[in-house]
Write a structure and sequence with these properties.
257 residues; alpha/beta; Rossmann fold; 2 domains; six-stranded mixed β-sheet; four-stranded antiparallel β-sheet; 26% strand; binds adenosine-5'-diphosphate; binds magnesium ion; ATP-binding; ATP hydrolysis activity; Iron complex transport system ATP-binding protein; ATP binding
């Protein structure tokens, strides 16, 4: 279990997160939504251990995140950040290999890299210069890297976590669905997922739980049906949209006028 307890974060004289508590049970996909600047990336980074909270604590499998050794943490959670810079001069397979730990790899490195590229549909691109790939293809290379990072560590029965910050940015429709499928499969295999998504329709499709942040606070939390409401769209996003509840899953349609 991954738990954030009463997390606050101040930076630049501003409160970015204010008393956020969040649990990520194994076997579930949690999606963070909210307007730009709501604090989503900051919360994801704090939960992943990339940024310390100003107040509160994060517990992973009962232990304070601060007490985990980085190498140990790397085998149990991996992070796809919002802006993954261009890897100049690297081949696709080199970038994926960066996800591997230096020691104690579960399978032959070449097999792991090939597996990761296969999962994201880039097996044919292994030898290409990363800079010659499209933005969406580069995003998939980084996704392969974080998947390989988790798979590389021998299983010890503890749930592993994927943290994905706007992972569908730049992906075409088919690969957005592939991303959702990867997240769902990770959860079905007993892992946990925390993903920031802007597309509420995608969020509704993939999430067991949606957490809406606004101004650094949790303003709604629950099933997609419970969170994606007309009220959320109006009060949090400030847009005049209606939620369509007629199908099995909620979806949002733009309303003209
Ligand atoms: P989101 O991912 O929801 O768009 P972020 O977590 O990236 O939001 O940022 C939340 C807010 O905190 C933004 O207004 C951002 O400008 C601000 N912020 C983030 N980091 C800092 C910092 N180090 N100093 C000052 N402001 C920051
Ligand atoms: Mg962000």
């Amino acid at each position: 279990m991954y738990v954030a307890e009463d997390i606050s974060r101040r930076a630049g004289g501003k409160t970015i997160l204010d008393g956020v508590s969040l649990a990520l049970p194994p076997g579930t996909v949690t999606v963070l939504v909210g307007p730009n600047g709501a604090g989503k990336s900051t919360l994801l980074r704090i939960m992943a251990g990339g940024l310390p909270p100003s107040r509160g604590r994060v517990l992973l499998h009962g232990r304070d995140l601060a007490a985990w050794r980085p190498a140990e943490l790397a085998g149990i959670r991996s992070v796809l950040s919002q802006s993954t810079g261009l890897a100049f001069g690297f081949r696709v397979e080199d970038v994926v290999r960066m996800g591997l730990p230096r020691h104690g790899v579960a399978e032959p490195p070449a097999a792991l890299v090939a597996w990761g590229l296969e999962v994201v549909g880039l097996a044919d691109a292994a030898g290409r210069d990363c800079t010659t790939l499209s933005g969406g293809e580069q995003q998939r290379v980084h996704l392969a890297r974080v998947l390989v990072q988790l798979k590389a560590t021998p299983a010890d029965g503890r749930a592993r976590y994927l943290f994905l910050d706007e992972p569908t940015t730049g992906l075409d429709l088919a690969h957005q669905l592939l991303l959702l499928d990867i997240a769902r499969r990770h959860a079905r295999a007993g892992g946990g997922v925390l993903a920031v998504l802007h597309d509420l329709n995608l969020a509704a499709q993939v999430a067991d739980t949606i957490v809406a942040l606004d101004g650094g606070r949790v303003v709604a939390e629950g099933t997609p049906e419970a969170v994606i409401t007309d009220r959320l769209l109006t009060q949090v996003y400030g847009v005049d949209l209606r939620v369509n509840q007629a199908s099995a899953r909620v979806f949002v349609l733009p309303v003209a006028g």
